[in-house]
Write a structure and sequence with these properties.
The complex is a heterodimer of chains A (112) and B (114). In chain A, 0% of the residues lie in helices and 56% in strands. Chain A is mainly β and 112 residues long. With 114 residues, chain B is mainly beta. Chain B has no helices and 11 strands. Classes of the chains: A mainly beta (112), B mainly beta (114). The A-B interface holds A 4, 6, 32, 34, 36, 41-46, 49, 89, 91, 95-105 and B 4, 31, 33, 40-45, 48, 56, 58, 91, 93, 95, 97, 101-108.
Chain lengths: 112, 114
């Protein structure tokens, strides 16, 4: 089955700096890669997703890149703000309508 | 549209007791998923339904676990003879089966087995 590895497990940045989280996946059949943000006491919330036919996608301060050949994908958050502090999960799925396999999570702390 | 709701939000039980959780998906979402999340880990897939049909079950779902979605709307997850290792957050998510395939998650039910 699919295995998603994520690093770093914790990340501290100064407000205004950029944060990068990297993930790898194992199943070449995976073609949908969502990123979720989870705040304390809440369920994960989708912040951005990318399909395997796209190499990069951007939404305001958030961008995701995908390298299908290397089975790598990354999340980039620019101009970080304290409200970006949360746990971020990368994930992989076949089609997105089936089960999603999550990474272990990255706890991001943005220091004001 | 009030999002995915889960009840109860917290459940404390003694080892050996049975517990049942309920998930109400976003209306008109045909797909419903259950995940389990332990502290410091990402959610792990348990099972999912398309309407009332249970299409896939993880090996994590032992014989003590059963999930139902009898009318294709809400779903229940029952754990029989609970063990301390069952302590976790149980998350439910729903999605449409066409168009945008984002899974919308509920707030979860936190289970503590004493």
């Amino acid at each position: 089955g699919e295995n998603v590895e994520q690093h770093p497990s914790t990340l501290s940045v100064q407000e205004g700096d950029s944060a990068v989280i990297k993930c790898t996946y194992s199943d070449s059949a995976s073609n949908y890669f969502p990123w979720y943000k989870q705040e304390l006491g809440k369920g994960p919330q989708l912040i951005i997703d990318i399909r395997s036919n796209v190499g990069e996608k951007k939404d305001q301060r958030i961008a995701v890149t995908l390298n299908k050949t290397a089975k790598h994908f990354s999340l980039h958050i620019t101009e970080t703000q304290p409200e970006d502090s949360a746990v971020y999960f990368c994930a992989a799925s076949i089609g997105g309508y089936q089960k999603v396999t999550f990474g272990i999570g990255t706890k991001l702390q943005v220091i004001p | 549209d009030t999002g995915v709701s889960q009840n109860p939000r917290h459940k404390i039980t003694k080892r050996g007791q049975n517990v049942t959780f309920r998930c109400d998906p976003i209306s008109e979402h045909n797909r419903l998923y259950w995940y389990r999340q332990t502290l410091g880990q990402g959610p792990e897939f348990l099972t999912y339904f398309q309407n009332e049909a249970q299409l896939e079950k993880s090996r994590l779902l032992s014989d003590r676990f059963s999930a139902e979605r009898p009318k294709g709307s809400f779903s229940t997850l029952e754990i029989q003879r609970t063990e301390q290792g069952d302590s976790a957050m149980y998350l439910c998510a729903s999605s449409p089966d066409r168009g945008r395939n984002e899974q919308f998650f509920g707030p979860g039910t936190r289970l503590t087995v004493l």
